[in-house]
Fold this protein.
Amino acid sequence: GAGVSQTPSNKVTEKGKYVELRCDPISGHTALYWYRQSLGQGPEFLIYFQGTGAADDSGLPNDRFFAVRPEGSVSTLKIQRTERGDSAVYLCASGRTGALQETQYFGPGTRLLVL
Amino acid sequence: AQTVTQSQPEMSVQEAETVTLSCTYDTSESDYYLFWYKQPPSRQMILVIRQEAYKQQNATENRFSVNFQKAAKSFSLKISDSQLGDAAMYFCAYRVFQGGSEKLVFGKGTKLTVNP
């Protein structure tokens, strides 16, 4: 079956602009995660959805970052007033139920470059 | 704070040889899972192997095996009979359920080069 997909693959924007990054999880997966991977670092947790609700948004760096998952499937990560420090690869992952022992399946990421 | 440390930023190995990647972690939880992920240049994180903390037996997956030392909080990955396709970034991670949520905590990664 299809894996996790993310669009766009790459995004270049100017400082101060608004961007939206999309994640399509594996069909039927209720758990969805966003991570941010800066250059030379491992991924860092941003937010976790269980169904439509954000179960844990403790990793969002500030109020410029917001994510939604209105129908419990596709999720959008939204970044307002982008800054150069937001440049990174944004990874999305999904899991069947979110149980501790489950595998998280990752998408290929969106590389965001803020000029 | 929950942390994962990979002390080897880069490693290299000859094709067909064996290499071990190191990982230590710090958590006060008793129930957690440990993972090794591979990230090739395509950026997609691929699960290599996982270990349940309550299991003493080390996990193995074909050419990949781990040395899990719970008391020492150490979780190393051994790759046997290295192949050119094993070249990638390798990330150690653990996952713990805490406060109604669970997430992966990653190390900084080790870049593995496989020489022909």
